[in-house]
Amino acid sequence: MTDEQRSYLMAYDINDDIRRSHVAKILQSHGERLQYSVFLLRIRPSKLLKVKASVEDEIDPDTDSILICDLGINDHAERSMLFLGKRSYRDTMIPTII
């Protein structure tokens, strides 16, 4: 496995608000939110392993689903993505659960 930065598309389907919020914070700290539950991470494969481990610690594997797509080297991934409408998602207000 090389240590060159790659692009990964990560999406989640998580029913529980607390788990969903935790996963969103993990992914947001490592990438760009493209849609409500879809993130683009431009990281090294070694960092992806750490992100995956953090996400796995938060989810319930019986009910939650995480999709990880390796889009390849950053330059190639950027050229292969096509956006219709606005490119990224911006939260107007992120609910905080205490």
From TrEMBL:
Its cofactor is Mg(2+). InterPro entries: CRISPR_associated_Cas2, Virulence_VapD/CRISPR_Cas2. Its EC number is 3.1.-.-. It comes from the Bacteria. The keyword Lyase does not apply. Keywords: Antiviral defense, Endonuclease, Hydrolase, Magnesium, Metal-binding, Nuclease. GO terms for biological process: defense response to virus; maintenance of CRISPR repeat elements. The keyword Magnesium applies. Mg(2+) binds at D13. It is an enzyme of class 3 (hydrolase). GO terms for molecular function: hydrolase activity; metal ion binding; RNA endonuclease activity. NCBIfam families: cas2 (TIGR01573). Belongs to the CRISPR-associated endoribonuclease Cas2 protein family. CRISPR (clustered regularly interspaced short palindromic repeat), is an adaptive immune system that provides protection against mobile genetic elements (viruses, transposable elements and conjugative plasmids). CRISPR clusters contain sequences complementary to antecedent mobile elements and target invading nucleic acids. CRISPR clusters are transcribed and processed into CRISPR RNA (crRNA). Functions as a ssRNA-specific endoribonuclease. Involved in the integration of spacer DNA into the CRISPR cassette. Homodimer, forms a heterotetramer with a Cas1 homodimer. This is CRISPR-associated endoribonuclease Cas2. It comes from Bifidobacterium vansinderenii.
